[in-house]
Amino acid sequence: MPLSRQAMDAMYALNFYSPIVEGQLRSGRKSATIRLGDKSGKYRKGMIVAVLAGARFGPRTKVFDAVIDKVEVKTLGELSPNELEHDNPEIRRVEDMAQFLGTLYNREVSENDLVTLIRFSEIRS
Question: How are strands ordered across the β-sheet holding 12-16?
């Protein structure tokens, strides 16, 4: 039987690989993710996603389901301190986020790199 449009949307995930992030997600301190490049074709406002934490190529833990509130593509340098903080409560400066993303993506990241800011909210039962 073919999957409904809603069921297909529910199969999308936001994966987080850092063990620190799981705690930030569970406590509500992390309500956004900043991804390198334009991800607006993959994620859209209103989409339901599973928020997952765990090692890349390993088992993942479902933290919660979420709704995507906003998807915005801009340069890293255009992000506000508030937007940076929603991704990582410890980061408020673009330079620090560039260094953090560089570590995650294993490459040099600058203020001019295109990023996608994805804001999301937990869905509670």
Answer: 12-16, 48-54, 60-75, 114-122, 32-36
Do residues 22 and 14 lie in contact, with contact meaning Cβ atoms separated by under 8 Å? no
Query: What phi, psi does 4 have (nearest 5°)?
Result: -70, 165
Q: In the predicted model, is pLDDT for residue 3 greater than 50?
A: no
pLDDT for position 5:
56
**Cα distance from N-terminal residue to C-terminal residue, the chain:** 27
pLDDT in tens, 110-119: 999 999 999 9
Per this entry, what is the length of the chain?
Answer: 125
What lies within 8 Å, CB to CB, of 69 at 6+ separation is 45, 119, 120, 121
Residue matched to tokens 């992030």: 21
14: which strand partners? 51
Reduced to 3 states (helix: H, G, I; strand: E, B; else coil), residue 13 is strand
Ramachandran region, residue 44 (left: φ > 0; alpha: ψ -120 to 50; beta: rest): beta
Residue 58 makes CB contacts below 8 A (sequence gap 6+) with: none
